[in-house]
Structures are given as structure tokens and as C-alpha cells.
Amino acid sequence: MPDATTAPHSQTLSRGIRVLEVLAESPLSIAGLAQSLGVHRSIVYRILRTLEDHGLVSRDTAGIVSLAPRMAALARGVERDLQATALPELTAAANDLGMTAFLVVLDHTECVTLLSVEPRAGATVAQRPGTRHSLSVGAPGIAIQSLLTDAELTDHGVVSRRALNPRGWAASHDEVIRGLSSVAVPLAVPGRPASALAVVFVAGPQEDAAVGARLIATRNSIVAAAS
Hints:
With 227 residues, this protein is an alpha+beta fold. It contains 8 helices and 8 strands. The strands form 2 sheets. A 6-stranded antiparallel beta sheet has the order 5-4-3-8-7-6, sandwiched between helices. Strands 1-2 form a two-stranded antiparallel ribbon. The protein is globular.
């Protein structure tokens, strides 16, 4: 019998995880999921039945599949202490700025949203936990790059480092999603993965410098509370 180091990976489990990753980006039909995974719809259907049984995905009356609330409950257990420390500070920043504020952590070659807070008032852009994008693009990616050595950047698939501006924050416009802008600052907490605090908003006349300064203050409060 092969040991744990030589046993083949479970293809079904891998596909199930991939379904969750795809749905974290956007709800899809079964046909859309099959196209994203490059498999027959019958395979996707069997995977979804299992995920539905565990309350991880749901389907509406039109057959569109999305992540279910159970996923949010599971996500709360990831870096629980960091999320608990960041939540009140992110909430204050979101309400002060009138923008969605979120905590992003490094996961292999991608930035993954761990926690997201929308402001009490004003039109906002949704940023779902589990949303991910390449470390090479977007303000959160630039912020996290600043915490990594050149060798680590290479290991994480970054070809060319992008630096923070001299005031210690990063901004991006139309990079991850057209029409949206983001400002982010790096967050380094001992014993935790490289992270960033960010806000996302519809591209417009917002003053990036003021947003960056507010995020730096938020970051300093979180670091002090986590120490």
C-alpha cells in the first residue's frame, strides 16, 4: 500500500476545491462551471451534489450556483485571531471612507480576501471573502510584494517587483476589474502570513493620498493590538 507521500491526489477532491475557487469569483451555471473546469457537466453535477449536501454551495431557481453561507462560517476559522483584531479597525475605516475595506492574505501566487467590511452608508463595491487575484497585479498585490524578499517573490511567481510609493501605500486603477480602483498598505504581524489592508471603490475623483493615510493609521492600530 502506498504511503501518504506517494499516494495519488484525489481528482474528485481537487475538482471540488476548484469549483469553490471558481464560485468565489462569481456565481455560474453548471454549464459555466463545466467550461471553467474543462469537464463534462455530469461530473460537475456530481461534485455539486456533494458540496450541496455539506452546505457549501447552493443553486437558485434559475440553476445558478453560488457559495452558500456555510462557506462564510468556515472562513471565520481561518486566521481567527487576525480577523478578530482587524474587524473593528476595518469597520471604522470603511465607515470613515465610505468604501469597502478588506483584509487580504498571501496564498501561493495569489492574494485572497479573508475579511471584508462594507460601510454603513453610500454606494459600495462588494468584495467577497474568498475573492482572489494574482500577486502581480492590484494594490493589495503590490502591498504584499513589499513584505517579500526577491527570492520569495520568484517562488510566488512574480517576475518584476512593483514598489510602494514613498508614502508607504500602493494604488491601482483598472487592473483587477475594469472601472474599479484600490488603495492598499502592507500588514506584517509576527506569526501570520504576509497580508495587506485595502479598500476598493469605483474609479473617480477620490484622493488616493488621503485614503492611503487612513489605511496606514488602520494598519498601525491593528499591529499594536496584535502585539
